[in-house]
Amino acid sequence: MAVRPVLALPDPFLQRPSTTVGTIDAAALALAADLLDTMRSRPACVGLAAPQIGVSRRAFAIDVTGHRKARSCAGELVLFDPVLVTSDKPVMGREGCLSIPDLTGDVARATEVVVRGLGVDGTERLVQADAFEARALLHELDHLDGFLFLDRVASPHSVYRRKVYR
């Protein structure tokens, strides 16, 4: 429906927990369309959460299709009210974020996860993911709880200036 501006740090909205969506109604579907349109408009973007576009609802879009680090791939996906069902032992990896465009950081995340949420059709979706897709899901879940990857970096020495944003 629309490409929306992406909020950036230090906007305090990014650090607020989101509220549940509940029913998949016209407003939820419009949010899904805006998340997808905005995500697609950004080169190399693999995920976008509702708080990043100024909407305090538990919803995000992801798509790791074609990413060199992806093994599992659920394709283009929007989840409402997602929750982490299971995760395994975390592994360190580099992350970036549209809301923190000039930095990347080393963050420990599980390499295998199961996430449950509602799809755009209102039915429950269970997403099993590994490797990069698991990292992307956990990153977006953090946004819904008011956390940014900088809140999860291994140490202050684990934050780096982004050289190129592709």
CATH H-level homologous superfamily name: Peptide deformylase
Second CATH tier, the architecture: Alpha-Beta Complex
Helix and strand element order: HEEEEEEEHE
Helix content: 10-25%
Q: Count all strands and give the number.
A: 8
Count of helices? Answer: 2
Task: Give the total of domains.
Answer: 1
Report the β-strand fraction as a percent range: 25-35%
Q: Any idea of the CATH class?
A: Alpha Beta
Low-confidence stretches: none
Using the CA coordinates, give the radius of gyration. 15 Å
Gross morphology is globular
Major sheet summary line: 5 strands, antiparallel
* Widest β-sheet, arrangement of strands: 1-2-3-6-7
Task: Outline the fold blueprint.
Blueprint: H1 26-41, E1 47-49, E2 59-62, E3 77-87, E4 90-97, E5 100-110, E6 112-118, E7 124-130, H2 131-144, E8 159-161
Antiparallel strand pairs: 1-2, 2-3, 3-6, 4-5, 5-8, 6-7
Please name the defining characteristics of this protein:
single chain; 166 residues; alpha+beta; Peptide Deformylase; 8 strands
